[in-house]
Amino acid sequence: MFRTKRSGLVRRLWRSRAPVEGDGEADRGTHGSGGCCMGKTTKVAKSNAGSEAELKALTHSILKKIKEKQLEVLLQAVESKGGARSPCLLLPSKVDAKVGQQSYSLPMLLYKVFRWPDLRHSSELKRLSCCESYGKINPELVCCNPHHMSRLCELESPPPPYSRYPMDYLKPPDSPDSGPSSSDTGGTTYSAPVGPSDSLALQESGERAHWCVVAYWEEKTRVGRLYSVQEPSLDIFYDLPQGNGFCLGQLCSDNKSQLVQMVRAKIGYGIQLTREPDGVWVYNRSCYPIFIKSATLDNPDSRTLLVHKVFPGFSIKAFDYDKAGSLQRPNDHEFTQQPRTGFTVQISFVKGWGQCYTRQFISSCPCWLEVIFNTR
């Protein structure tokens, strides 16, 4: 029987759909469902044979109505898991599809099939800035590329007390020779043993050409030079097809620790930092969780800081400019004594830290980032 190219593309796409619980791959939490902050997860039960057949028939019927070139774009995005640059897939936004008793828009159906089977509502999504539909409201044609979207990380309220850092840890030691930050004392950033870190010096130089600088650390040792960021978006990765940005795989590291080497290899597609009007967002495009601590992720009146867990495919606003301004109040003793606290974000790959982990401080994590924002 003669099979068209279109039919072949549709079959390949269906085979590349997002796994659900019971499919094996879903249990690893690579690009499937998940939650944010302290490991809250939402698993999706494997659908019964009837609904699976219905979903397959519906997906096939919709995909067969899409142009071949658009199918190729979708297949490139899905098979590379977002690693390869793929253009927008512009399709009518008002086409509805029904699975059982549930009705979904065309974009929502494609997002559920190819990214997040547990997706319930479009309010759970955030469009990435690389997308043509970014910032547009109710256009007739909307991008349906599943890898131009991310899931929003919702912060827990109230957060578990065991995951918090007392703000007393952020107060500088009484010694007059102490630097502006500390490592294993629980301070917000880890500086070089002698004098202030050059990341602090760079921030205080008043440069306006960059909006942030990034330092990569392996345990207590910084690897490579500071990476200055001028573009609105930056990819930080170990191994990314068509990658363009801060490639950690090209840095020379003398660390022989098996754990460091294992975690380094798991960084994979890494993260994406994006400067947007409301703040700086971090998108986890790797296959493993990342862990973030930022003063602007917590209530400005709080005396403690949380370490937030962000699952693959999720985004979180890691730095808020308005909140950062409130952290500089003249009567705010902790932040006036340690000015970097409000302007630095720490991100650890794969391994978390804090009071609910064996690692108490980020300087014990195998691979981590220090992002210092230029707010001048």
Automatic annotation (TrEMBL):
GO molecular function: I-SMAD binding; metal ion binding; transcription regulator inhibitor activity
MH2 domain residues: 211-376
CDD domains the UniProt entry points to: MH1_SMAD_7
Domain MH1: residue ranges: 8-158
Alphabetized SMART domains for the sequence: DWA, DWB
InterPro entries in the record: Dwarfin (IPR013790), MAD_homology1_Dwarfin-type (IPR003619), MAD_homology_MH1 (IPR013019), SMAD-like_dom_sf (IPR017855), SMAD_dom_Dwarfin-type (IPR001132), SMAD_FHA_dom_sf (IPR008984), SMAD_MH1_sf (IPR036578)
Region Disordered, annotated ranges: 164-198
Subcellular location, record wording: Cytoplasm; Nucleus
One of the GO BP terms on file: SMAD protein signal transduction
GO cellular component: cytoplasm; heteromeric SMAD protein complex
Family classification: Belongs to the dwarfin/SMAD family.
Protein name in UniProt: Mothers against decapentaplegic homolog
Gene: smad7
